[in-house]
């Protein structure tokens, strides 16, 4: 028998298993589930940024036929008292926001009332005419004006790492042959996934709830509901089967969940609550950030000092933190490093993790500064990075579990044609367009969390694997199916993956690029456990060639259980199932990170981005005409979905560099462009040639699958590379993003 396998799926590029459901409209999102006796809610938002509610005139609204209730701080029941009840799995330090619990206004667009009616149209109309009197107070929303009030975080969220300081950066910089110091700024950004936040709560006759919520973590939401409303797990089932984009916006329970469950419990009715696009700008954001970077090199171009300070906003009631500056002590070799990080409390809603939180921001400051430093030292930007390559994580003083960044540099430079680049700015052009080539890179944590999974195989050879992890568009259904099918040697068509339901085995929130590593490892583990049960059944068959074989002696391939060293010695898996007489066989398993490996190694993914821009010399318009993004992220499970993740990251990076910004009118403490018409993101005409390539790494330490996750690392360096390319094209260095036309002219 040939040892070739048709069931080796890991590393291949199968299409999404849920694709047909999505393109035919059969995939149901949270605000689309049909439930009986449904009523509708509509949120009323505060027009002021700070103050108190003096009076809510609900009587006229309640007199409208079909209006059921106007919920506000004046009539909601008393719920959990302590802050800990409102803290979710990824909450920062401080006191979480409690909707409708008092008369205080903490930020603009704060939900102040919920109108519930028999129809959506009536709820929306009633909300629009509800009169509310406010007592307005002076607000503060400008982080640039208040930067001197910055303070070191005292109680950051889980995962926050205080900045490192090693050696003597000031002393190193004082001896530098070449030296630069600059400030880099980017404004507020909002997640803006295509699907708006919404919830459908099914109130069952026995008082139990099935909550279909837009979330990146159903168990996180269930725990929140249990603590806030005093519900047991069986009375608060949370479901999210599909998500139309999250990017971090769904990591924490948002207020549509709280308000819809509150209304369902009080009215004993099923309810649907969807936010508006404008209200999506009240849910958290990537914070407006100011960075100061100072670098120095010796005569050979080796870094002798690095200083990096970041200041960004947080709310007054929670202390949101990001790992912004830490990467500057890790990505390049330098003995003397001083990193600082501060937050400024303002009258805004708490910022929220957005794709590659901290690193996406920090890489702009560091990588643009590295480009400036390279020019100051007279060294090609790529060569400058090679000369300062870090073979060891200096922050943690650990070796990397694997790192192929040198190979990434080489592959990216070769595919882009970097050797043809002229160093001098304004030295390349096509007609009236100035041509610029820039590059940058990034590093991101390779994390794994604790998770569980279940596997069930039936007598007809159909396998179901399940875990409560989410699917926000990254390809989790497909990756789970690939891993399960390969582990048990089945065709992918014989495998069904179930996700996003608190009745399934527990899994963490989907974020941090850890889902494939975490849930994928759980699926592999549970299928191996199921395989051991199947092997024992196979050994009970008459004349079984597998008698005496241990699990490590066999493999599951092409519907067979066979000996690894003698593949002709095999049994048909379906025969095993039918002879066993069992209708179905189950296995459960859970996984967690290896603490010894975590102590011993630094685990990270890396990338490098090469960009070509063309800038109209007369108009200043910028066109990103070519991008090559090369990523080293361990083992790639699915080449197609992985490439898709990085393609999306590049488009996001173009947006971050050239157009994306939420503009605050500080007179009112309110975002001006809280809509898709004026919050600019790339369209087809903005996106040209994008190449994505992977340099695979064998990493036995990072997790059982050897994967590192790519949902975030692909974004890193894109905005910085574009900024650097614009300098190369024009000779003008812009240090404030987005890089709009007015900043070039």
From TrEMBL:
Coiled-coil annotated residue ranges, if any? none
Sequence segments annotated as region (Disordered): 144-170
Annotated Aldehyde oxidase/xanthine dehydrogenase a/b hammerhead domain ranges read: 24-138
Tell me which InterPro entries the record gives.
Ald_Oxase/Xan_DH_a/b (IPR000674), Ald_Oxase/Xan_DH_a/b_sf (IPR036856), Ald_Oxase/xanthine_DH-like (IPR016208), AldOxase/xan_DH_MoCoBD1 (IPR008274), AldOxase/xan_DH_MoCoBD2 (IPR046867), AldOxase/xan_DH_Mopterin-bd_sf (IPR037165)
Entry-linked Gene3D superfamilies: Aldehyde oxidase/xanthine dehydrogenase, a/b hammerhead, Aldehyde oxidase/xanthine dehydrogenase, molybdopterin binding domain
Entry-linked Pfam families: Ald_Xan_dh_C (PF01315), MoCoBD_1 (PF02738), MoCoBD_2 (PF20256)
Q: What is this protein called?
A: Xanthine dehydrogenase family protein molybdopterin-binding subunit
Please provide, alphabetically and separated by semicolons, the GO molecular function terms listed in this UniProt record: iron ion binding; oxidoreductase activity
User: Where does the source fall among the domains of life?
Assistant: Bacteria
């Amino acid at each position: 028998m040939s040892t070739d396998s048709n069931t080796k799926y890991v590393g291949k590029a199968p299409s999404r298993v849920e694709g047909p459901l999505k393109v035919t409209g059969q995939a149901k999102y949270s605000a689309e589930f049909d439930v009986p006796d449904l009523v509708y809610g509509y949120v009323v938002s505060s027009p002021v940024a700070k103050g108190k509610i003096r009076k809510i005139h609900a009587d006229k609204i309640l007199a409208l036929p079909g209006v059921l209730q106007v919920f506000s701080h004046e009539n909601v029941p008393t719920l959990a008292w302590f802050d800990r009840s409102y803290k979710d799995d990824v909450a920062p330090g401080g006191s979480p926001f409690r909707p409708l619990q008092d008369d205080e206004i903490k930020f603009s667009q704060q939900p102040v009332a919920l109108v519930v009616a028999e129809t959506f149209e009536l709820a929306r109309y009633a909300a629009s005419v509800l009169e509310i009197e406010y007592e307005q107070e002076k607000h503060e929303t400008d982080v640039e004006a208040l930067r001197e009030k910055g303070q070191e975080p005292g109680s950051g969220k889980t995962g926050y790492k205080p900045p490192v300081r090693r050696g003597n950066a000031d002393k190193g910089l004082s001896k530098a042959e070449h030296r630069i110091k600059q400030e880099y700024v980017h404004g507020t950004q909002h997640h803006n996934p295509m699907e708006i936040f919404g919830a459908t709560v099914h109130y069952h006759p026995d008082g139990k709830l099935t909550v279909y919520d837009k979330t990146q973590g159903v168990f996180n939401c269930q725990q929140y509901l249990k603590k806030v409303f005093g519900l047991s797990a069986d009375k608060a089932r949370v479901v999210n089967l599909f998500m139309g984009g999250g990017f971090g916006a769904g990591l924490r329970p948002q207020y549509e969940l709280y308000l819809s469950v509150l209304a369902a419990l009080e009215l004993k009715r099923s309810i649907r609550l969807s936010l508006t696009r404008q209200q999506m700008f009240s849910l958290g954001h990537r914070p407006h950030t100011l960075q100061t970077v100072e670098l120095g090199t010796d005569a050979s171009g080796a870094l002798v000092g690095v200083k990096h300070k970041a200041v960004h906003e947080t709310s007054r009631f929670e202390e949101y933190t990001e790992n912004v500056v830490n990467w500057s002590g890790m990505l390049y070799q330098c003995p003397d490093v001083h990193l600082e990080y501060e937050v400024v409390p303002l009258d805004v809603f708490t910022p929220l993790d957005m794709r590659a939180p901290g690193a996406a921001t920090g890489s702009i400051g560091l990588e643009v500064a590295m480009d400036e430093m390279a020019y100051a030292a007279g060294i090609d930007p790529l060569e400058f990075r090679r000369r300062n390559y870090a073979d060891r994580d200096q922050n943690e003083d650990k070796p990397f579990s694997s790192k192929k960044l040198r190979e990434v540099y080489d592959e990216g430079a070769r595919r882009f044609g970097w050797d043809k680049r002229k160093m001098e700015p304004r030295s390349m052009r096509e007609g009236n367009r100035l041509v610029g080539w820039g590059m940058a890179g990034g590093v991101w944590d390779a994390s794994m969390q604790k998770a569980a999974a279940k596997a069930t195989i039936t007598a007809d050879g159909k396998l179901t694997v399940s875990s409560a992890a989410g699917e926000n568009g990254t390809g989790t259904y497909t990756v789970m199916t690939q891993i399960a099918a390969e582990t048990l040697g089945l065709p992918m068509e014989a495998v069904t993956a179930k996700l996003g339901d608190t009745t399934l085995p527990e899994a963490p929130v989907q974020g941090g690029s850890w889902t494939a590593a975490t849930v994928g490892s759980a699926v592999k583990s549970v299928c191996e456990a199921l395989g051991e049960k199947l092997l024992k059944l196979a050994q009970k068959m008459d004349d079984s060639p597998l008698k005496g074989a241990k699990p490590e002696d066999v493999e599951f391939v092409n519907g067979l259980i066979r000996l690894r060293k003698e593949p002709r010695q095999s049994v048909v898996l379906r025969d095993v199932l039918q002879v066993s007489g069992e209708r179905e066989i189950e296995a459960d398993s859970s996984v967690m990170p290896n603490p010894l490996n975590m102590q011993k190694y630094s685990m990270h993914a890396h990338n490098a981005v090469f960009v070509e821009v063309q800038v109209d010399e007369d108009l200043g318009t910028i066109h990103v005409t070519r991008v090559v993004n090369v990523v080293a992220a361990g083992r790639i499970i699915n080449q197609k979905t992985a490439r898709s993740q990085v393609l999306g990251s590049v488009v996001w990076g173009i947006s971050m560099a050239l157009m994306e910004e939420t503009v605050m009118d500080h007179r009112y403490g309110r975002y001006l462009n809280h809509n898709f018409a004026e919050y600019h993101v790339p369209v087809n005409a903005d996106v040209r040639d994008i190449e994505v390539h992977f340099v695979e790494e064998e990493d036995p330490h990072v997790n059982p699958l050897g994967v590192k996750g790519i949902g975030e690392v692909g974004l890193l360096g894109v905005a910085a590379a574009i900024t650097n390319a614009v300098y190369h094209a024009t000779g003008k260095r812009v240090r404030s993003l987005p890089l709009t036309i007015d900043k070039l002219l």
